[in-house]
Amino acid sequence: MRHRLNSKGHREGKLIDYKVSELRVVELLDGLCSRMKDYILEMDGPNKGKWSKSIPLDAIQDRRQADAHSKQMSTYCGRLLEDTEEELEERIKNGSLKPGEVERVLCWDLARECNLSESNIQTEPVPVYDDEL
């Protein structure tokens, strides 16, 4: 990624591999918290008190409560990301963050918000592709 042109119109500057670039980190993290609106806090059943991927909000009986919890999740995500952004960015850049490890790294390693015996996040398995991280 070289952006400077010299007086002859040739590109100058350090060539940075996309995989370790700032642009890649920004693209990966941009919009992450806005996707948290897809999760809701389970209010009953075996997963009571845990976050899970939601059904469409139109199908939820108490939409106001679901919207409030969804906003709460998005706000929490923003705070968590703000607190851990530098460490997360460094792990992405140096390649130590592997696909499928984001929950563990954010929840346990960086934020220390989860206890090891039980995850507070219950989600459907999401396919992760090597080019995502």
From TrEMBL:
**What does the organism's lineage look like at the top?**
Eukaryota, Viridiplantae, Streptophyta, Embryophyta, Tracheophyta
**Which protein, by its recorded name, is this?**
DUF3456 domain-containing protein
- Superkingdom of origin: Eukaryota
Database matches in InterPro entries = DUF3456
Residues in DUF3456 domain copies? 2-114
